[in-house]
Amino acid sequence: MQNCNNTNSANLVDLSNIYYTDIFPIKENSSLSTREFLQRVIDICLEFIDESNDRSRPILRYNDPDEMKTKFNFNIGKEPINLEQIVHDCAQALYYQVRTAHPHYFNQLSCGLDIVSLAGEWLTAAANTNMFTYEIAPVFILMEHEVLKKMRHIIGFYDGDSILAPGGAISNLYAVIAARQKMFPEYKSKGLRALPQQLVLFTSEHSHYSIKSAGAVCGFGTDNVIEVPCDERGKMIPSELEKLVKIQYEMGNRPYFVNCTCGTTVLGAFDPINPIADICDKYNLWLHVDAAWGGGLLLSSKQRHKLDHIERAQSVTWNPHKLMGTLLQCSTIHFKQDGLLLETNEMCADYLFQQDKHYDTSYDTGDKVIQCGRHNDIFKLWIMWRSKGDKGYERHIDHLFEMRDYMLKGIKARGDKFHMVLENPECVNVSFWYIPSRLRNVPHDDERIKELGRITPILKARMMQKGTLMISYQPLGDIPNFFRNIISNSGVQKKDVDFLLDELDRLGHDL
Ligand SMILES: Cc1ncc(COP(=O)(O)O)c(C=O)c1O
């Protein structure tokens, strides 16, 4: 895929006279041409995977949006297009795609491409089923049942119920609405007027914005999602939470939901579950743990203590598509109480969830969710977990932390070229500034920090233009832009960490 036009090597079949009407499902007995077409597309995918794992190849070929519009033909015309062109389109789309599996891509919480999980995703696409009933997805429904039960046991919920949701943000929304159902069951039929008082949610100032978004979606209003201050490590301060809860009660409002983040998005901090759970018990609040990011630590005996007492929560979000490396998307939400998910969301649609079916309809999941149709996100997780076993997953998590430790050592060894934003991070997030030569011998005061915040996006732009490295950056509260490096790709080795630190210096020393 060095050249996006180069999709037609000598031994490949010519598809220029073949159209969609010449393959399945329109043309019967067209196995040969169907396979030829699919084989060409699979070859492109395989080449992309080879390239993504080749450290000498770029992560991306950057183009500005206006330039990209001139290079890629996005047009859908009136007439059919031959499959040779379609194969070319596939190659071109991947040619310009960022290689998120590249070992020098440290940009998002989801990095890497697990090959067994990919096989699962390909098989899932071939099966192309909907996850609402056992009737049309018997193996996958039972698989979901078993894997979610296993995850609940790992959390410490020995009963309960769970579901796969399209992302951690929606998983958090599920928790907010289930808590509302549990405490104010009249809401479901009567709406907002059934609520006795203004409901109030609490979440740390460093938590994911999806909690605020859930407050908006549910009609509570973002002003009623109260941000609780964090300590210098980014962890919620329980005494501040209690103070804010009391204030809301005094105002005549009804505090009802506390989100405790285990693995914050930027700093990777873990809120202290136990004291927060005590406050929830004292004031009759629902405790949700957002472990979308940090949930993977439950699989490592060395790391799981960071989520001690998670079983005290009423609900837990845990995204396998982040630290566990399952392909996007794969996100779970777990409840301690069985039956609540169904009670919250069931609409009893007669045309799907008939109660007189010839099998045990409790296996039908469709009425537990706010969607109707649901993608099969379980097979890619199940097959990946099955291939690794619990031991392989533990090794995966431990390896990520070893690489994180190697990076922290490497930063220290490079002296004044780096400045940590957070020393001793709890997760695999490493937050730092790169210091160019001219700023190395000056005090780390407000002026230098402001200047570092200004040059961080310039260094990021250089990375992308060169195509050698990707690390994300952001401001956080009063702290101006800094880099947040994520190691969640199991393919990352020490030499990649060395490369990352040295490449930052090559690209940024003169800034
Ligand atoms: C702590 C936390 N919760 C929730 C989410 C949302 O997850 P998703 O992107 O899968 O919706 C994120 C995403 O980064 C996150 O970091």
Automatic annotation (TrEMBL):
<dbReference type="GO" id="GO:0009449">
    <property type="term" value="P:gamma-aminobutyric acid biosynthetic process"/>
</dbReference>
<dbReference type="GO" id="GO:0030170">
    <property type="term" value="F:pyridoxal phosphate binding"/>
</dbReference>
<dbReference type="InterPro" id="IPR002129">
    <property type="entry name" value="PyrdxlP-dep_de-COase"/>
</dbReference>
<keyword id="KW-0456">Lyase</keyword>
<protein>
    <submittedName>
        <fullName>Glutamate decarboxylase</fullName>
    </submittedName>
</protein>
<feature type="modified residue" description="N6-(pyridoxal phosphate)lysine">
    <location>
        <position position="322"/>
    </location>
</feature>
<dbReference type="InterPro" id="IPR015421">
    <property type="entry name" value="PyrdxlP-dep_Trfase_major"/>
</dbReference>
<comment type="subunit">
    <text>Homodimer.</text>
</comment>
<dbReference type="GO" id="GO:0004351">
    <property type="term" value="F:glutamate decarboxylase activity"/>
</dbReference>
<keyword id="KW-0663">Pyridoxal phosphate</keyword>
<dbReference type="GO" id="GO:0005737">
    <property type="term" value="C:cytoplasm"/>
</dbReference>
<dbReference type="InterPro" id="IPR015424">
    <property type="entry name" value="PyrdxlP-dep_Trfase"/>
</dbReference>
<dbReference type="Pfam" id="PF00282">
    <property type="entry name" value="Pyridoxal_deC"/>
</dbReference>
<dbReference type="InterPro" id="IPR021115">
    <property type="entry name" value="Pyridoxal-P_BS"/>
</dbReference>
<keyword id="KW-0210">Decarboxylase</keyword>
<comment type="similarity">
    <text>Belongs to the group II decarboxylase family.</text>
</comment>
